[in-house]
Amino acid sequence: MDVDRVPVVAAGLTLELDPSIGSLTQRLMAGLRTGVQQGRLPPGLALPPSRALAAGLGCSRWVVTEAYAQLVSEGYLLAVTGSATRVRELGPAATATGATAAPVPRPRLDLLPGLPDLAAFPRVRWAEAYRRAVRELPTDLLAGRSLLATGPARHTLTAYLRRTRQVQEDPTQLSLSTSSTAAVGWLARVFGGLGHHRIAVEDPSWPGLRDAARRAGLEVVGVPVDDQGLRVDLLARTDARLVIVTPAHQFPTGVAMSAERRLALIEWAEQTDGTVLEDDYDAEFRYDRRPVTSLQGMAPDRVVLMGSVSKSLSPAVQLGWVILPQWLILRLVSDDLDRGVGPSALTVAAFATMVAEGWYERHLRAVGLTYRRRRAALVAAVAHRLPGCAIGGAAAGLHLPLTLPPGTDVEQVVRAATALELPLASLDDYRLRPRGSEDGPGLVLGFGNLRSGREDEAVALLAQALAESSRREPVSGGTASRRAAPSAPGKPRSRTAR
Amino acid sequence: MDVDRVPVVAAGLTLELDPSIGSLTQRLMAGLRTGVQQGRLPPGLALPPSRALAAGLGCSRWVVTEAYAQLVSEGYLLAVTGSATRVRELGPAATATGATAAPVPRPRLDLLPGLPDLAAFPRVRWAEAYRRAVRELPTDLLAGRSLLATGPARHTLTAYLRRTRQVQEDPTQLSLSTSSTAAVGWLARVFGGLGHHRIAVEDPSWPGLRDAARRAGLEVVGVPVDDQGLRVDLLARTDARLVIVTPAHQFPTGVAMSAERRLALIEWAEQTDGTVLEDDYDAEFRYDRRPVTSLQGMAPDRVVLMGSVSKSLSPAVQLGWVILPQWLILRLVSDDLDRGVGPSALTVAAFATMVAEGWYERHLRAVGLTYRRRRAALVAAVAHRLPGCAIGGAAAGLHLPLTLPPGTDVEQVVRAATALELPLASLDDYRLRPRGSEDGPGLVLGFGNLRSGREDEAVALLAQALAESSRREPVSGGTASRRAAPSAPGKPRSRTAR
Question: Would you give the distance in Å from CA B267 to the centre of its chain?
Answer without folding.
Answer: 31
